[in-house]
Structure formats: structure tokens, C-alpha cells
Design brief:
Layout lengths: L1 E3 L17 E7 L9 E6 L6 E3 L20 E2 L2 E5 L7 E2 L1 H4 L3 H4 L4 E5 L9 H6 L3 E2 L1 H10 L5 E4 L10 H12 L8 E4 L11 E7 L8 E3 L1 E6 L1
Parallel strand pairs: 6-8, 7-9, 8-10, 10-11
Antiparallel strand pairs: 1-14, 2-3, 4-11, 4-13, 5-12, 12-14
Helix pairs in contact: 4-5
């Protein structure tokens, strides 16, 4: 069975405060006498369920089209329950009990439960959790095969305390042995329910030079 882990996109999704979102403009319309319906899509590269690639925080980092298709397919996903409150930072202490499991994973799915507040836009956008700076370093040390981290809240950066999250982004996205840890933010992990994911595909828009992209994320579940 396959489960969609991306939030469906429309023009009213939560977003980083002050950032542009999604705008659809009709280009051709059958009702106006055109032969087909088409639209122009204007979308922020970090809108909805999306991926951060190295160029997002590293000026010499890989862009979207520098990456391979295989970089977005994960064969050993690990779902972790890590309850987090408003503005709380994820720390190594939250993850240390799972260290042996992280060691075998290529993707860690962090389900904090904060997704339940997604319809409360101001709370979700402005008071979401984030990463402490040393959490990213812990994940890289604990997970030698780790290639991705996904979270059910807005960003690795907590809006009320963004500096640790900036450092965490850089630590995850920098290349170690030619391998970065891609970041998937605002992911619908509630959709997994009680299922375990056995494989995850996270397909972005492969636009040349892009620093991130909305993704269609699909999990195969047992």
C-alpha cells in the first residue's frame, strides 16, 4: 500500500512568515475560446511539503539538478515519535534512545505531533519547534548512512529562535564524503498512522539552479 505524505497544495497553506506562497493564473481558457485550459504557476521554492538541498544554505552547495534521482529514494526509512511543544528545540536527548536504529536508517521521519496545529496558521507558522545546533551533528554521527530527515512541522528553524536551526541546516546539508542529508519540511507524517514505511519516494521539481522544491512524497507501507 502507498500513502501520500505531502500536504495538498493550494493558495492557503502555512508558510514561513512573510514568504511568498502559491499563485495560479489562468493562461488559456476554453471558456474564453482557447483550445485548452492552462495555468501559470508561481510558487515559493519552500512552500508546502518541500525539500531543502545544499544550495539553500551553502553558497557552493549542490543545487537541485546537481543531485541524482536516487538521492530522493529511501529504502530504510525510520519513523520516530518525538513529541515537541510550541517553540521547543529538538535535542540529542530526544534522539539518543533511538541511536542504534538511526545507525541503520537512510531517512529519519520525525513525528512531533505538532502537525495537529497546522490549521491554526499563526501558531503553526510562528511557534513551531526547531532543531538545536548539536542535533544535526548528532544525527550525522549516529547515522552514517543517513541521507534525509523529514519533519511534521514547518522548518528546522524555530521562528522564535532561528539561529540554532540555521546552523543545523548547514550541518545537515554540507557534504561529508560526497553525501549530504536532505531536509524535508512540513511533511504529513500523520498520514502514516500506525503503519511502518518500508520505502519512501520524495520527488521534487528538477529545475536548474533551484535551492529547494515542493515535493510529492509517497511512502510504501507494510
Amino acid at each position: 500500500m502507498k500513502v501520500l505524505l505531502s500536504h495538498r497544495l493550494d493558495e492557503n497553506q502555512p508558510n514561513w512568515p512573510g514568504a511568498p506562497g502559491l499563485r495560479l493564473r489562468p493562461s488559456h481558457q476554453i471558456a474564453a475560446g482557447d483550445i485548452a485550459n492552462t495555468h501559470v504557476i508561481e510558487i515559493y521554492s519552500h512552500y508546502g511539503s518541500h525539500c531543502d538541498v545544499p544550495y539553500h544554505f551553502l553558497s557552493d552547495g549542490a543545487t537541485m539538478t546537481d543531485l541524482d534521482l536516487d538521492d530522493f529514494v529511501f529504502e530504510r526509512p525510520l519513523l520516530l515519535e518525538v513529541p515537541l511543544a510550541d517553540d521547543e528545540l529538538l535535542t540529542p536527548g530526544h534522539l539518543r534512545p533511538y541511536e542504534s536504529q538511526i545507525a541503520r536508517a537512510d531517512l529519519v521521519l520525525l513525528r512531533s505531533g505538532f502537525q495537529q496545529h497546522r490549521d491554526a496558521r499563526e501558531r503553526y507558522e510562528s511557534h513551531g519547534p526547531g532543531f538545536s545546533a548539536d542535533t544535526a551533528a548528532f544525527l550525522r554521527q549516529a547515522g552514517p548512512s543517513l541521507r534525509g530527515v523529514a519533519l511534521d512541522w514547518l522548518s528546522v528553524c524555530a521562528v522564535q529562535n532561528p539561529d540554532p536551526g540555521v546552523e543545523a541546516h548547514k550541518e545537515l546539508l554540507r557534504s561529508v564524503g560526497h553525501q549530504s542529508v536532505l531536509i524535508f519540511e512540513d511533511v504529513d507524517l500523520a498520514a502514516l498512522g500506525d503503519h511502518s514505511a518500508t520505502r519512501v519516494w520524495a520527488m521534487p521539481l528538477f529545475i536548474d539552479g533551484l535551492d529547494g522544491s515542493p515535493c510529492t512524497i509517497v511512502a510504501e507501507v507494510s
